[in-house]
Structure formats: structure tokens, C-alpha cells
Amino acid sequence: MPDSLTKEQIKKLLPHREPMLLLDQLVDIKKLHSGTAILNVTKESFFVQGHFPGQPVMPGVLIVEAFGQAAAALTAHGLDKSTYENKLVFLMNVEKARFRNPVIPNCKLELKIEAIRSHGKVWKYKGDAFVNNLKMADAIWSATIVDRK
């Protein structure tokens, strides 16, 4: 397995599509353990158009969404295809999320994620978001794999 995924490869693992597909790459993958998702935040990103005009900022809730997408891609990439085929990964809870610095356009947001526990179809993750090695946010969350209806 490659130790990185392109956006096109991520699309084969996740049901998300533009504009809600927030990941551009997943790199430094350690199977079912960790990886780093890359999101290039630009002035054209849909979420900065109205948040906030004149001083655009990526909404914190979308940073959490990007964490979740990165975790889902990491997990799907590591599992046998028959395990995740016709499945969806749903966010179950966010135990803790902290937003330390605003994420503004024209940056590369790096989401370092780690699977810290799995029990059947329930997985727990932690993540740290960085721009130029400055921590922007961190979170701990759980997700579950469910059948696609």
C-alpha cells in the first residue's frame, strides 16, 4: 500500500464530494494508526466566502469535519475493501475540541491524526492541526462504521 493518497484516491474511499470533500492529500500513512491530511485553504474555498467578509476564517466546525474525513480515509485505506465497501463512517461524538489560532486563507493546513482505540465498528481518534508548525486546533473524537442504506 502506498504511504500517501491523492485527492482522487481519497474519493475512492469516501463518499464526500466538492465542496464538502475537505482533503487534498493524506500522507505519512501508518496503516490503521496515523497519517497527516493536507488541506490547502484558499480565498476561493467555499467556507471563507461569507465567514467573515473582509477577514476570512475557516470555521472551527469544518476543521473538526476535516479531522473526521481524514480519520475515515485512514481507516478505510487500512481495512480490507470488503470491510468498508457499502459502508459509511459517521461521527459519533467530539469529546474535546480546542481552537487555538484562526485558520486564514492561503495556507496549508496539516491535520496530524492518530487512531487511539478501536472496538469493533467504533474507533476513537485524536488530531492536531498545524499551519507552518503552529498549532491551530486539536480534538478527540469517535466514529462508527455503519451500513450504507
Describe, in plain words, how this protein is organized in 3D.
The chain has 149 residues and is α+β, with helices and mostly antiparallel strands. It has one domain: Roll (Thiol Ester Dehydrase, Chain A), CATH 3.10.129.10. The protein is built from 3 helices and 7 strands; from the N terminus they run βαββααββββ. Strands 1-2-3-5-6-7-4 form a 7-stranded antiparallel sheet. Strand 2 and strand 3 form a beta hairpin.
Topology:
Blueprint: E1 5-6, H1 7-13, E2 25-30, E3 34-41, H2 60-78, H3 81-84, E4 87-99, E5 107-119, E6 122-131, E7 134-147
Antiparallel strand pairs: 1-2, 2-3, 3-5, 4-7, 5-6, 6-7
In short:
This protein is α+β, with helices and mostly antiparallel strands and 149 residues long.
